[in-house]
């Protein structure tokens, strides 16, 4: 199937071809026609499968449709016609860049709105109105309160990576934004993972125009499309996943060894804490490895400069906190490294989804210390398989990490939990002695 069969017009198809796209992905095949029909969408698909185009392309098509008078609607001052909410600055910039590429042959305006930069310049850009606004919740509310923009002409709301926005504590901001939007609008939610918190968020908007995504209130909207191309529990088959058990005090030495010994061409290295990112860069440089980092405390200008160097290949090794890395989109990224294992399985899936994109092969390596055992159990339970383990010569482990439990259930989620019995992380079918537990046969 070609893009021309999805209901897109020639200017948009031409822009898509310029980018080298020949056939739509699975999520695009299903989502684009549904969006064009005006349906409310809940779309789930793995990272790297073209979700951004799934909502941007039909959004552009709907905005350029001519009126009965034969004219394209013009945006009034301080108004926007569509709103895309994203969790991070980097992702806002990335999505707006995609909008600009896809709309190069049509007369539509777009803008990325986020914190960390001059607010007055952003106000000036909004004076004449913008067709497509890609924004982070905090800065959007700041300008809304200052009456720098109004929502009365919004035709479509898109929540991208809503799970991450909830993790970052944006629920109140999102609710305030939703309350100010017109009731008559189309609503789209796309993410690599849809967890229970996201489902509750969608359901909480019942009755205000967002209820089409509610799972318990589907009767409110007959046009709901629940598009799940791939289960949120899985990762792409193109990603070779493996882990190394390691003691915390030898992590940086192990990373340096792998980079030099295996001659890694490039790596995106995930770390949990901001101060740890700068420290790791310093440790790598002492071993002759040039690296840089991005995290929330660095200025937007520095983050953009560092990302540009990494995308161009000038910078080979980038250390990033999970939040800062949400906007990184590099089609040919060969590997990601979980220097720190994430706390949530959804975050693991998001992270490794930075590689192995669009059918290309990728590699995901995780460093796992004894303290990461419960997180590893949760991740492998979500993946439904044990991640391959490798031993690296010269790096013996003092604190052995046991074999994981595929049916591991966090203590607070166990039925009938009272806080006393069965408190071991080994609770479940495979309950056994620490260090001797075998994985489930399932």
Short précis:
With 442 residues, this protein is an alpha/beta fold. Helix content is 33%, strand content 16%. It folds into two domains: 226 residues, Rossmann fold, CATH 3.40.50; 163 residues, P-loop containing nucleotide triphosphate hydrolases (Rossmann fold), CATH 3.40.50.
Could you characterize what this model shows?
The protein is of the alpha/beta class and 442 residues long. It has two domains: 3-228, 3-Layer(aba) Sandwich (Rossmann fold), CATH 3.40.50; 239-401, Rossmann fold (3-Layer(aba) Sandwich). It has helices at 10-18, 26-36, 51-64, 89-102, 119-126, 137-145, 162-167, 171-180, 196-204, 251-261, 274-286, 300-312, 345-352, 373-383; strands at 41-44, 80-85, 110-113, 130-135, 156-160, 186-191, 225-228, 239-245, 267-271, 291-294, 317-321, 335-338, 362-368, 388-389. The two termini are 37 Å apart.
SSE layout:
Layout: H1 10-18, H2 26-36, E1 41-44, H3 51-64, E2 80-85, H4 89-102, E3 110-113, H5 119-126, E4 130-135, H6 137-145, E5 156-160, H7 162-167, H8 171-180, E6 186-191, H9 196-204, E7 225-228, E8 239-245, H10 251-261, E9 267-271, H11 274-286, E10 291-294, H12 300-312, E11 317-321, E12 335-338, H13 345-352, E13 362-368, H14 373-383, E14 388-389
Parallel strand pairs: 1-6, 1-7, 2-4, 2-5, 3-4, 5-6, 8-13, 8-14, 9-11, 9-12, 10-11, 12-13
């Amino acid at each position: 199937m070609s893009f021309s069969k999805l209901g897109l017009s020639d200017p948009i198809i031409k822009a898509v071809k310029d980018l080298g796209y020949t056939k739509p992905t699975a999520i695009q095949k299903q989502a684009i026609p549904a969006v064009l029909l005006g349906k409310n969408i809940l779309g789930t698909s793995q990272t790297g499968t073209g979700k951004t185009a799934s909502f941007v392309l039909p959004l552009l098509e709907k905005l350029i449709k001519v009126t009965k008078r034969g004219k394209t609607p013009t945006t009034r001052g301080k108004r926007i016609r569509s709103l895309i909410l994203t969790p991070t600055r980097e992702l806002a910039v990335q999505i707006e860049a995609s909008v600009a590429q896809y709309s190069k042959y049509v007369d539509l305006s777009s803008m990325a709105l986020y914190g960390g930069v001059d607010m007055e310049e952003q106000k000036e850009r909004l004076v004449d109105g913008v067709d497509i606004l890609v924004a982070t919740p905090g800065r959007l509310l700041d300008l809304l309160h200052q009456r720098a923009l109004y929502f009365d002409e919004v035709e479509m709301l898109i929540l991208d990576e809503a799970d991450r926005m909830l993790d970052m504590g944006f629920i109140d901001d999102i609710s305030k934004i939703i309350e100010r939007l017109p009731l008559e609008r189309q609503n789209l939610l796309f993410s690599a993972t849809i967890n229970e918190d996201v489902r509750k968020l969608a359901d909480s908007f019942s009755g205000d125009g967002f209820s089409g995504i509610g799972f318990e209130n589907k009767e409110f909207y007959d046009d709901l499309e629940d598009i799940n191309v791939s289960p949120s529990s899985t990762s792409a088959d193109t990603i070779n996943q493996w882990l190394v058990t390691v003691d915390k005090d030898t992590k940086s030495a192990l990373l340096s060894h792998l980079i030099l010994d295996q001659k890694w061409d490039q790596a995106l290295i995930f770390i949990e804490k901001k101060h740890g990112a700068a420290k790791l860069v310093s440790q790598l440089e002492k071993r002759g490895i040039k690296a840089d980092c991005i995290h929330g405390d660095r200025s937007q200008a520095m983050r953009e400069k560092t990302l540009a160097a990494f995308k161009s290949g000038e910078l080979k090794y980038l250390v990033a906190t999970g939040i800062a890395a949400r906007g990184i989109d590099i089609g040919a990224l060969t590997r990601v490294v979980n220097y720190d294992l994430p706390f949530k399985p959804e975050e693991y899936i998001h992270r490794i989804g930075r590689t192995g994109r669009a059918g290309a092969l990728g590699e995901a390596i995780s460093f796992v210390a004894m303290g990461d055992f419960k997180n590893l159990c949760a991740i492998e339970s979500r993946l439904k398989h044990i991640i391959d383990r490798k031993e690296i010569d010269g790096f013996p482990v003092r604190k052995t990490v046991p074999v994981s439990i595929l049916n591991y259930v966090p203590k607070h989620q166990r039925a009938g939990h009272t806080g006393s019995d069965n408190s071991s992380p080994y609770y479940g079918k495979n309950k056994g002695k620490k260090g001797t537990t075998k994985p489930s046969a399932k």
